[in-house]
Amino acid sequence: MSIFGKIKDAIFGHKDPGPGNRPTIPAGMAGGPPLGQQPQATAQPQAAPQALAPAEPVDVDQVLSDISRQRGNPDLKYKTSIVDLMKLLGIVSSLENRKELAQELGYTGERDGSAEMNIWLHKAVMKGLADNGGKVPASLLG
Fold first, then answer.
1. How far apart are CA 16 and CA 140, in angstroms?
2. Range of the domain at 117
3. Is 40 inside a domain boundary?
4. Do 6 and 12 form a contact (C-beta atoms < 8 A)?
5. 30-53 pLDDT, tens per residue?
6. CB distance 60 to 139 below 8 Å
């Protein structure tokens, strides 16, 4: 999984994919149908899929604040620092991981861990979260 994907998952959480999109458990495995049993056909026609209501946007600032409070990390400057944001989310903030994140997000400058790179990464991550349905306040977008 990409570094940005890990950040997004840590903030947005994992959601139920919904009926029809869940993986099926093979026959004979725990939670699946018994071996040799044929699935029963239903006599009722299936209802047409209903349009899904748009999901509520995730309040990124609130989620980060809650994580900080739960983990007891009040000194992390996650609102401005990509290193502290990654630490808050339990993601290794090594230069190697930040270089990978820079590549994923299209950073074109030197990937040397400079303040310029780190500031750009933080802004790009916040923009990416907003582009993926997150409610990100302007103060975090830079």
1. 28
2. 3-10+56-135
3. no
4. no
5. 555 566 655 554 444 454 444 444
6. no
Task: Evaluate whether 6 touches 89 at the Cβ level (below 8 Å).
Answer: yes
Contact between 88 and 64 (Cβ < 8 Å):
yes
Q: Could you tell me if 114 and 95 are in contact, meaning their C-beta atoms sit under 8 angstroms apart?
A: no
Looking at the DSSP assignment, which residues form a beta bridge with residue 134?
A: 58
Q: Measured between alpha carbons, how far is 93 from 103 in angstroms, rounded to an integer?
A: 15
Q: How many domains does the chain have?
A: 1
Task: Measure the CA–CA gap between 130 and 58, rounded to whole angstroms.
Answer: 9
Among 82, 99, 79, CA closest to 91? 82
Is 81 part of a structural domain of the chain?
Answer: yes
* Burial call 77-111: b when 16+ CB within 10 Å, e when fewer: ebbebbbbbbbbbeeebeeebbbebbebbebeeeb
- Which tokens is 51 given? 């349009």
Q: What is the pTM of this model?
A: 0.71
Q: Which segment of 17-26, 68-77, 126-135 scores lowest on mean pLDDT? A: 17-26
